[in-house]
Design a protein that fits this description.
The structure is a homodimer. By secondary structure, chain A is an alpha/beta fold. Chain A has 2 domains: 3-59, Arc Repressor Mutant, subunit A, CATH 1.10.10; 76-251, Rossmann fold, CATH 3.40.50. Helix content of chain A is 36%, strand content 24%. The first copy, chain A, has 9 helices and 15 strands. Chain A has a 7-stranded parallel beta sheet with strand order 6-5-4-9-12-14-15, with helices on both faces. In chain A, strands 1-3-2 form a 3-stranded antiparallel beta sheet. In chain A, strands 10-11-13 form a 3-stranded antiparallel beta sheet, covered by helices on one side. In chain A, a hairpin with a 2-residue loop joins strand 2 and strand 3. In chain A, helix 2 packs across helix 3 (33-46), helix 4 (76-87) crosses helix 5 and helix 7 runs parallel beside helix 8. Chain A is globular, with a radius of gyration of 20 Å. Chain B binds a DNA duplex through helix 3.
Chain lengths: 263, 263
DNA sequence: ATTTATCTTGCAAATTCTTCCAAAATCTTC
DNA sequence: GAAGATTTTGGAAGAATTTGCAAGATAAAT
């Protein structure tokens, strides 16, 4: 294995786990801790990660659409606007499949008045409605994937394959004119099952997802009925999507900034 | 585990429980309270939580009732003692079914070190482990029953009927020599499925359940392998249970708030 | 006012980081 | 191909950081 390849593997591994100790990395790539140290120094200078005492950390864990923290501040206001706009697409008493993912979580926050029937595999979404009596929430079973708070595995896939719903509101890692991709291979099967289960497919993607491509392809644009994004989405790509028959909804920019926690 | 990772886990754990004591946090991440103190100071400066006397609290309480309802319930200390005693019955790498119910929730709090495989239909239990990597948690699917944070319905029953586990740790509404009863009729089917799925059946019942009868009969004493209760359980009934071959474990009374004679 | 619990501070032990050096691997030149 | 130069790798010693403990200070409880 070349040094380049090794650095690449360190990067990739770190993307998956967010944190890793020196020992862990050195075992994973099969070199001494000294070499890993040197690699980390180079990679940090290149800006792809951040060293910490005892290991290293990814630079922008927040850009992970499926990160567990439901109230992450990363593009909070944009996601909130998207959530509001997307919730308006839902009619009363419709059955809605909600994907896991922070943007979709914000949609959920605005769904309570619609009193729909909700199906999800996201623990944060389930918690959100757990005390609300207006909404009936069905949680798919499965194994809890710790970092993300998502239920995964064959049980989850099976649950969605048996389901039928009016709308599916989905997250993803990236969108281009070639289609929609996602970074978490574990979720792809589940998302495909969701797509099959719902009549209408809506993707909620903030502008940072536009033009990005993640590792695993999820579906083509022909499957997508609508995309809800914020007003900072690149105009050319929005136009391109509309040309291909996808309805694109631009959520209006939020008036006031996100409430920053001041102590 | 790196320091960075540890801080992240503290944050995540706190998101789940809203408030946690120093002791609790230090056990969860496996370092001394001194180190947790230092971490909390850093995290507070970073604005992600708020320190309090004796622990720390999240900034934006989302009043997630589940993680919390188990906490401020009455007979907290008895349940905590039962939880600790019951957790000791579980061996490493065993598969455990956890019923919904506050007493069983306290068992879950002490299970993390055992690193078992956990199957449950309780959202609070799922949330408890959502950020812990040591434990594999399988959540049964189903409809969320709002007030209790439990998954119910045919999906849940079916999930447990397909399952096999070493131990089932159960809650109930009452116990007499005639058997065990429960007040939530909705849960009876699910509990019966749990009983079928597990080889060993353990009931966790604080002393207030002894001699009580709820509306729906759940099972006879012959199905029960062990009962964990606190030291205030009525002696005659305990003796009666033992005569019938049920192992009864009396959790030692909690150490704390015994009124110290200060003259 | 006393007692208890919790917090801060200082310090020694342990861990991790940097820097340097020799061995191994790779590249250059013939 | 082979010999020498260059780069890379793995390890070791000292510097820096982090951790856990203990004693005094502070805050809550009774």
């Amino acid at each position: 294995m070349t040094a380049e390849e090794r650095k690449h593997r360190i990067e990739a591994y770190l993307q998956g786990v967010e944190f890793a100790s020196l020992e862990e990395l050195s075992q994973h790539v099969g070199v001494s801790t000294s070499t890993v140290r040197r690699d980390l120094t180079v990679l940090e200078a290149a800006g792809s990660l951040r060293r910490t005492h005892g290991g290293a950390r990814v630079l922008t864990p927040k850009s992970d659409e499926f990160a567990f923290s439901a109230r992450d501040s990363h593009q909070f206001s944009e996601k909130e606007a998207i959530g509001r706009a997307c919730a308006e697409l839902i009619g009363s008493n419709q059955s809605v499949i909600l994907d896991a993912g922070t943007t979709v979580y914000h949609v959920a926050r605005h769904l309570e008045e619609k009193a729909p029937q909700i199906v999800t595999n996201s623990l944060p979404v389930a918690n959100l409605f757990a005390s609300a009596n207006k909404v009936e929430v069905i949680l798919a079973g499965g194994v809890i994937y710790p970092r993300l708070g998502v239920l995964v595995g064959p049980m989850t896939v099976e649950a969605f394959l048996k389901m039928r719903a009016d709308v599916a509101i989905m997250s993803a890692g990236g969108i281009t004119l070639e289609g929609i991709t996602n970074s978490h291979a574990l979720l792809i099967d589940i998302q495909r099952a969701m797509l099959k289960a719902a009549q209408k497919i809506v993707f909620c993607l903030d502008h940072s997802k536009f033009g990005r491509q993640s590792v695993s392809p999820l579906c083509g644009l022909d499957m997508v009925d609508a995309i809800v994004t914020d007003s900072l989405a690149p105009a050319e790509l929005v136009a391109g999507l509309r040309e291909r028959g996808v309805e694109v909804i631009l959520a209006p920019a939020p008036v006031n900034p996100a409430p920053v926690a001041a102590h």
